[in-house]
Amino acid sequence: MKRYKIIGLCLLLLVFSIGILYIKKHDNYYLKELEIKSIEDKIREFEYRVEKLKVKKKQIGKDKKYSLTKEEEKILDKNRYSKNEILNLIYKKAVEFDVDVINISKSVLKVSNGKYALFDISLELRSSLYNIERFILSLDNFDKIIDFSSFSLFSKNDSSIINISYIGDNDE
Predict the structure, then answer these.
(1) What phi, psi does 17 have (nearest 5°)?
(2) Residue at which a domain ends, from 65, 80, 112
(3) Which of 48, 95, 148, 166 is most buried, by the most CB atoms less than 10 A from its CB?
């Protein structure tokens, strides 16, 4: 009789342990499902914010009367180049690093607020690639910002052409 009680208690213990494991796995499943729903909600919220920014950007692009804040104007004033300042800088650095400047061409990329403009400048240089690299790095380490996000370098015959951008006065 004792033997049957022990076997019965073991079976009862087995049923309870299986039940506990089942409940634990079931809870983990629901926790993971809640995590997935939370992540999906965050993704939807992020997509909504991105969509709002796109709409705002389109409105700014259509409305030509977009004005800069005072902080933005201070940053632009600090980092803009005058008409001859960028040319003087380029020639000074070219002499310093033994680079021959063959041709300089400039075009306006974007006008902001009528006072500032983003210029694209194309430099045709003749020198070794090592000297051109040092020349470019010296421009990148200058106090004022020169935009290298649209930077490109082409080699043509014995010369190299680089494109960089900078902020300047709109009246140039």
Answers:
(1) -65, -40
(2) 65
(3) 166
Domain extent for 28: 1-65
| Alpha-carbon span 83 to 39, nearest angstrom | 51
Distance CA 106, CA 88 (A): 14
The reply to whether 156 and 81 lie within a common domain is: yes
CA atoms within 13 A on the CB side of 35: 6
- Say which DSSP state 100 is in: E
pLDDT tens column, 113-126: 566 677 777 888 88
What does the block give as tokens for 95? 């002499």
Calculate the alpha carbon distances from 134 to 70, 89, 95, 127, 140 in Å: 36, 14, 12, 11, 10
Considering the domain architecture, whether residues 118 and 137 belong to the same structural domain is answered as yes
User: What does pTM read for this prediction?
Assistant: 0.51
CA atoms of 136 and 131, how far apart (whole Å): 9
What pLDDT, in 10s, does the model give residues 59-83? 444 444 456 667 767 776 676 776 6
Distance in angstroms (rounded) separating the CA atoms of residues 80 and 117? 9
Q: Which two tokens stand for residue 36?
A: 């997935």
